[in-house]
Design goal:
five-stranded mixed beta sheet; globular; 16 helices; alpha/beta; single chain; signal; D-Maltodextrin-Binding Protein, domain 2; NitT/TauT family transport system substrate-binding protein; 333 residues
């Protein structure tokens, strides 16, 4: 009798364990992402979500917008999010402070500045010298938009601190509204806001900071070194999904991409989304792969140094790990 029930019990244990094993293989891993802004600039990320590329990798991503680089990094360091989509300069700031658990860039999403120079009045045959003695509504000091903006101005012989009235004390989320209400003669704006302002007659796009400032690891997915150590598989799956999103955007029309990302811009007309995606594609803003190139990293250091935000040059191997990006590319072939 004992043997009989013993075997029955053992069988039940085996069946139960097998059941658990089956369930485990289909379970998904939750990943909380904090994006620095909601922008068409990040179209490949939205495509990866909407096309189910993260789900295919067994990931359940929760996306939240944490407006501003400082807020996004605070959320990452405090553990409120697992992965941050923010400018690579933030990882350098953390490293410069001597962090014991540095922030590591593992997948690049955009490779140029995503802002455009918008003038209140229409200007034909624009020349950068026309900004002199004007009121320029810039971005937050120390952030990539502002540093790339100042880098471009200096490139054209304009001293941002002395040749124009530079306003940079307005919160990132309020810059567009400030310009619309009458502050400044020129402003730096991301898409789709730039296209919306053109349609509504609030401004005119006259130049691209992305084109002017060159290749930069402008927006990158990053996480804490400790998270990578504990969740290498998740980071790899995450990068695989992002690469698929990047490739999808590169091989589809602006109209197709705009349609896919519409759920993230429910109050934006389709033609505006198409215009924004087209602008970014034409100037090569969307990175074609998640690999962060050393030449782009060095350009970033030059931009930061020019802005006076770099204590010393940080070699990429200190805060960049391209392993996951390269694996994602190899595994897709």
């Amino acid at each position: 009798m004992f043997k009989r029930y013993g075997w029955i019990g053992l069988s039940l244990i085996i069946l139960f364990a097998t059941g658990l094993s089956g369930c485990g293989s289909s379970q998904t891993s939750k990943v909380k992402i904090g994006e620095v802004a909601r922008s068409v600039f990040y179209a490949p990320q939205y495509v990866a979500i909407e096309k189910g590329f993260f789900k295919d990798e067994g990931l359940d991503v929760e996306l939240q917008t944490t407006a501003g680089g400082d807020k996004t990094m605070t959320a990452l360091l405090s553990g409120a999010i697992d992965v941050a989509l923010v400018g690579a300069e933030t990882s350098i700031y953390v490293y410069q402070q001597g962090a014991e658990d540095p922030v590591i860039n593992f997948a690049q999403l955009t490779q140029t500045d995503g802002t455009f120079l918008v003038a209140r009045d229409e200007i034909k045959d624009f020349d950068w010298s026309q900004l002199k003695d004007k009121v320029f509504l810039g971005q937050r000091k120390g952030g990539m938009p502002q540093m790339a903006g100042e880098f471009t101005l200096k490139k054209h012989g304009i001293d941002p601190q002395n040749d124009l009235e530079l306003i940079q004390n307005i919160e990132f989320a309020n810059i567009a509204a400030a310009f619309a209400s009458g502050t400044g003669q020129f402003v730096q704006l991301f898409e789709p806001t730039a296209s919306i302002f053109e349609r509504e007659g609030k401004g005119h796009v006259i130049a691209s900071f992305g084109t002017e400032s060159g290749r930069l690891p402008y927006t990158v997915f990053m996480t804490k070194q400790s998270y990578i150590k504990d969740h290498e598989d998740i980071v790899q799956k995450f990068t695989n999904a992002i690469y698929r999103g990047q490739q999808w955007v590169q091989t589809h029309s602006p109209e197709e991409t705009a349609k896919v990302i519409t759920p993230f811009f429910k109050d934006t007309d389709q033609d505006i989304l198409v215009s924004a995606v087209k602008r970014y594609l034409e100037q090569g803003t969307y990175a074609e792969s998640p690999v962060l190139e050393e030449s782009a990293w060095n350009n970033l250091l030059d931009v930061m140094d020019s802005a006076g935000e770099l204590k010393s040059r940080v070699e990429p191997d200190k805060v960049v790990d391209n392993t996951f990006a390269k694996t994602a590319i190899q595994s897709s072939r």
